[in-house]
Amino acid sequence: MAPYLLGLRLDGRRVLVVGGGRVAQRRIPALLEAGASVTLVSPSTTPALDDLIADGRVTWERRPYQVGDCDGAWLVHACTSSREANTAIAAEAEAKRIWCVRADDKDASAAWTPASGRVDEIGVAVTAGGDPRRAAGIRDAVVEALRDGTVDARRHRTKPVGVALVGGGPGDPGLITVRGRQLLAQADVVVADRLAPRALLDELPPDVELIDAAKIPYGRALAQDKINELLIEHARQGKFVVRLKGGDSFVFGRGGEEMIACAKAGIPVTVVPGLTSAVAVPASAGVPVTHRGVSQEFHVISVHVAPDDPRSTVDWEALARSRGTLVLLMGVERIERLAQTLIRDGRSPETPVMVVQDGTLPTQRAVTATLSTVAERVTAAGIRPPAIVIVGDVVRVGQEIEMVRAERVP
Ligand code: SAH
């Protein structure tokens, strides 16, 4: 017979869990999330359960099960390692007409726990004829589809309002956050930057208004005012606006300015952090920005103005003196001045450098050189923006990793 699925509202109700092992550890957090008042009966527990007990979230009776424990409970979980004990617990619950879930024997269990998940206010519960792995697999698929918008739940949820500044990650559409993707799936209007992951925009439903911020025909400063206006204007019309950027909105992304403008206009703004290219692109090229014994620090620098430009506020001498990794954004057009400055200020001309174009995208390519040869290499290879320049011995670590991998990993 198929089970009857039900959502139990456990707030303030007593739930008994007998047995303090891995099964209890999996079940108890969901019970607590539903507000249940959980009593655990068990001679021992796991470290994760110990934490819940120490926090006063679970009442622990440190002893084996005894008849009468089920009194006053609305629900019982029998998850001891002893079949005999579980049988006795289930029998007591049955006699008292309390629902009991047995972890060891689905056929002898009065109730089953479905594989469950939550996306905002939507609860998903799946049973699969008593096959927990299959149920979990289906649950994962449904939860994922709700999260990434494959299952379009737009009409069924409370719609977000205002503006969301969403960091889209470095370019690969798989590298946006789950929350970013959720909000994107709910957008009425998307205002996208040049570096916002293209593939995410191609997936938007046709009724979503897409504004390409790179195509706004003004100078840089004016264009930003225009973008702020667009965000505010659409939000005022009651539309939910997603401002989608490459990487993280607050890393050379002018996210702060947009936030201030929206806040001044009384528009609610949500920030969804993104994976910045400053870390993700080196990683994607196999270079760890820190490595024990090699680099204890990494500096992220925008080179949108050249080192010798009077508008530059960067302390190049300090950077040249430091032994940390340098991650330079918007620098490939000025690579020659950049390398010369670092050498002049004290970095060895032999310092390894890697330049990565289109990181995390199918078109990703990289050149490796030293400070003295990098400008020439970049020109010869025709490397163009968007590209990231990585300076420091971690580049060598990346090469070492690649060598070992090529030799040993099939
Ligand atoms: N907010 C973004 C950075 C914006 S500045 C972030 O957090 O990633 C734009 C610069 O970022 C580009 O000129 C380039 O230096 C770098 N960049 C962004 N995406 C990149 C990618 N996929 N590959 C290489 N460089 C990238």
Describe the secondary-structure layout.
Layout: E1 14-18, H1 22-33, E2 37-41, H2 47-54, E3 58-61, E4 75-78, H3 83-95, E5 99-102, E6 115-119, E7 122-126, H4 132-148, E8 163-167, H5 178-185, E9 189-192, H6 198-202, E10 209-212, H7 220-236, E11 241-245, H8 255-264, E12 269-272, H9 277-284, E13 298-302, H10 316-321, E14 325-329, H11 335-344, E15 352-357, E16 365-370, H12 374-381, E17 387-391, H13 394-408
Parallel strand pairs: 1-2, 1-4, 2-3, 4-5, 8-11, 8-12, 9-10, 9-11, 13-14
Antiparallel strand pairs: 6-7, 14-17, 15-16, 15-17
The protein binds S-adenosyl-L-homocysteine (SAH).
Give a written overview of the molecule.
The protein has 410 residues and is α/β, with parallel strands linked by helices. The longest helix is centred in the middle third of the chain and has 17 residues. Helix 7 crosses helix 8. 33% of the residues lie in helices and 20% in strands. It is built from 13 helices and 17 strands. The protein has 4 domains: 100 residues, 3-Layer(aba) Sandwich (Rossmann fold); 45 residues; 113 residues, Tetrapyrrole methylase, N-terminal domain (Cobalt-precorrin-4 Transmethylase, domain 1, 3-Layer(aba) Sandwich); 123 residues, Tetrapyrrole methylase, C-terminal domain (Methyltransferase, Cobalt-precorrin-4 Transmethylase, Domain 2). S-adenosyl-L-homocysteine binds next to helix 9, strand 15 and strand 17. One of its GO terms (biological process) is cobalamin biosynthetic process. Keywords: Cobalamin biosynthesis, Lyase, Methyltransferase, Multifunctional enzyme, NAD, Oxidoreductase, Porphyrin biosynthesis, S-adenosyl-L-methionine, Transferase.
